UniProtKB/TrEMBL annotation:
It comes from Terrabacter ginsenosidimutans. It is an enzyme of class 6 (ligase). The keyword Cytoplasm applies. The keyword Metal-binding does not apply. Keywords: Aminoacyl-tRNA synthetase, ATP-binding, Cytoplasm, Ligase, Nucleotide-binding, Protein biosynthesis. This is Arginine--tRNA ligase. Its EC number is 6.1.1.19. Belongs to the class-I aminoacyl-tRNA synthetase family. InterPro entries: aa-tRNA-synth_I_CS, Arg-tRNA-ligase, Arg-tRNA-synth_N, Arg-tRNA-synth_N_sf, ArgRS_core, DALR_anticod-bd, Rossmann-like_a/b/a_fold, tRNAsynth_Ia_anticodon-bd. It comes from the Bacteria. CDD domains: Anticodon_Ia_Arg, ArgRS_core. It is found in: Cytoplasm. Residues 6-87 form the Arginyl tRNA synthetase N-terminal domain. GO terms for molecular function: ligase activity.
Length: 586
């Protein structure tokens, strides 16, 4: 299955070699879209200086050597040396017929690589807020896409499940009682549980006299020591905290419709036993050195104010470990134990310096070989109408579950107004699919490293570049096939492209495989979102101008039904790669 540009490239290269000599056989044909034709060959402008001829003369020589019988209806030189090519509709129909018979609708499988992806990464005993939305949604779409391309994707949900706060949290759990209503807040309202523990800790810190054995803060600090020492009872309580948080995580992931499960949890605690060895190896090899009591790595090229070197602290002066130590253990594990070819980190843009220092240290230590590529998929912020980071009126981070519930409620209002004929359970299902899809698509339709303003009214609209608009196109095609009593998957007929809008739709359908491959290469799901929006527009124009069920001839009706079925397959596949559901009705 090849796109028109892929099929055309060797033909143009052969013509360049025939016209200018074999030395130019590998020359880039410089194929570009054109408003005057299907494609423009711009190679003549780039080659003119090399061969010492005017660009138009070079273009004419290439045209004379082109063999495009059955491929193009029109070939002409224009402007300073552009070659405009207009494809034969029959040739386009033949390429599209190949896509139609392909169960993967033109998406080629790639040689399999092992690709760990680090995304979502919430904290135990803390509620996920809007800041977790983008890393979760973008990471999940990239994971889905790479799997679809044939790769072995290893989801790594690097949750915060270790460290000093857990002494405080365990002691609070003991105070309120395991199985108590307050303990249940870890599932329903984790922030409330965490804040209650924090208030007790801070209050104890300020209390007089301080230091008695019964003080909450003293118990909390003692509990941290027991946790780090592997005390059996403390680990049991820690596991209970983690298990309760898992219930919360899974509820949110289920609501959001992402593919993360308990099997993908790879939290900070997983690397705890490896941290001393990380430090010992770096110090013994002279990569790390003690500075002001802390063990640090100083790398060339990382300087701060006044040109002073910026340290990567891998062991604090009090003997504790930080994110850098854990992240070094993480990259070492993902390369050596998981056999990674690429490692993706879908996390906030401000972490760029930290990650680069970790990777450069790992390279210096030999843990990250040159043939393994680490990638920071940088995530931008979600903004409110004031163009500041989206928060509640009180200034607290906006709870992600509350945001999703509001989106579903907003979608339900729209569905109730537009489809009062549907029964209540069906409207509830559609509202969930549309509301969650609207939030995810709004996020995925912009570049992941950019900011965007969260606007629910715009997101749930059935017009414009929105998730509901794409879902509506799928629902419309389902409706067409319900009218004729057919399954779109069973529709296979010969495709003819006699009308302009049929041809435009076919050209767009042929680009699906290239776009999915591009997303896998660039980790940019917004490219797929943009493609699907343009496909939806092309289908709408086709549907409005080319009667399907009322086509004047049976073979034309069958051809157009096949086009509809192919749009359905591409749209549902593409929406699934973005993580959006395709409602039966809207």
């Amino acid at each position: 299955m090849v796109s028109p540009l892929v099929a055309l490239t060797p033909k143009v290269q052969s013509a360049i070699a025939a016209a200018l000599g074999d030395d130019f056989r590998e020359a880039d044909p410089v194929l570009r879209p054109s408003q005057f034709a299907d494609v423009q060959v711009n190679a003549a402008l780039a080659l003119a200086k090399k061969v010492g001829l005017p660009p138009r003369e070079v273009a004419a020589k290439i045209v004379d050597a082109l063999d495009l019988d059955g491929v193009c209806d029109s070939v002409e030189v224009s402007g300073p040396g552009f070659i405009n090519l207009t494809f034969s509709s029959a040739w386009i129909a033949g390429l599209l017929q190949d896509v139609e018979t392909d169960e993967r609708v033109g998406v080629a499988l790639q040689p399999t690589q092992n690709i760990p992806i680090d995304y979502s990464a919430p904290n135990v005993a803390k509620e996920m807020h809007v800041g977790h939305l983008r890393t979760t949604v973008v990471g999940d779409s990239i994971a889905r896409t790479l799997e679809h391309l044939g790769h072995n994707v290893i989801r790594q949900n690097h949750i915060g499940d270790w460290g000093t706060p857990f002494g405080m949290l365990i002691e609070h759990l003991l105070d309120v009682g395991e199985g108590s209503e307050e303990a249940g807040l870890l599932v329903t309202d984790p922030n409330a549980f965490y804040q209650a523990a924090r208030v007790k800790f801070d209050t104890a810190e300020k209390a007089e006299p301080a230091g008695s054995a019964g003080d909450f803060n003293v118990r909390a600090r003692s509990r941290v020591v027991l946790l780090q020492a592997g005390d059996t009872e403390t680990l049991r309580l820690w596991n209970e905290l983690v298990d309760l948080s898992k219930v919360y995580f899974n509820k949110l992931y289920s609501t959001l419709g992402v593919t993360l499960t308990d099997l993908h949890l790879a939290g900070e605690s997983m690397y705890n036993d490896a941290l001393p060895g990380i430090c010992e190896e770096l110090e013994s090899r002279g990569i790390a050195e003690v500075s002001d009591g802390a063990l640090c790595v100083f790398l060339d090229g990382y300087t701060g104010r006044e040109g002073k070197p910026v340290p990567l602290i891998i062991r604090k002066s009090d003997g504790g470990y930080g994110y850098a130590t854990t992240d070094l253990a993480t990259i070492k594990y993902r390369v050596h134990d998981l056999g990674a070819h690429r490692v993706l980190y879908v996390i906030g843009a401000p972490q760029s310096l930290h990650l680069n220092m970790v990777w450069d240290t790992a390279r210096k230590a030999g843990w990250l070989p040159d043939d393994v590529v680490p990638v920071h998929v940088q995530i931008g912020n979600v903004l409110g109408e004031d163009r500041k980071i989206l928060k509640t009126r009180s200034g607290a981070p906006l709870r992600l579950m509350a945001l999703l519930e509001e989106a579903v409620d907003k979608a339900r209002t729209v569905i109730d107004e537009t489809r009062p004929d549907l029964d209540d359970p069906l409207r509830a299902t559609i509202a969930r699919q549309v509301g969650i899809g609207a939030v995810k698509y709004a996020d995925l339709s912009v570049a992941h490293d950019s900011e965007y303003v969260f606007d629910l009214d715009r997101m749930v609209a059935l017009t414009g570049n929105t998730g509901p608009y794409l879902q509506y196109v799928v629902a419309r095609i389902r409706s067409i096939f319900r009218q004729v009593g057919l399954d779109p998957a069973a529709q296979h007929a010969s495709i003819s492209l006699g009308e302009q809008h049929e041809r435009a739709l076919a050209m767009h359908l042929l680009g699906f495989g290239d776009v999915v491959a591009e997303v896998g290469d660039t980790y940019e799901p917004h490219r797929l979102a943009g493609y699907l929006f343009e496909l939806a527009q092309a289908f709408s124009a086709f549907y409005e101008n080319c009667p399907v069920l009322k086509a004047e001839r049976d073979e034309l009706k069958e051809s157009r039904l096949t086009l509809c079925a192919l749009v359905f397959r591409v749209m549902t596949t593409g929406l699934d790669l973005l993580g959006l559901e395709s409602p039966e009705q809207m």
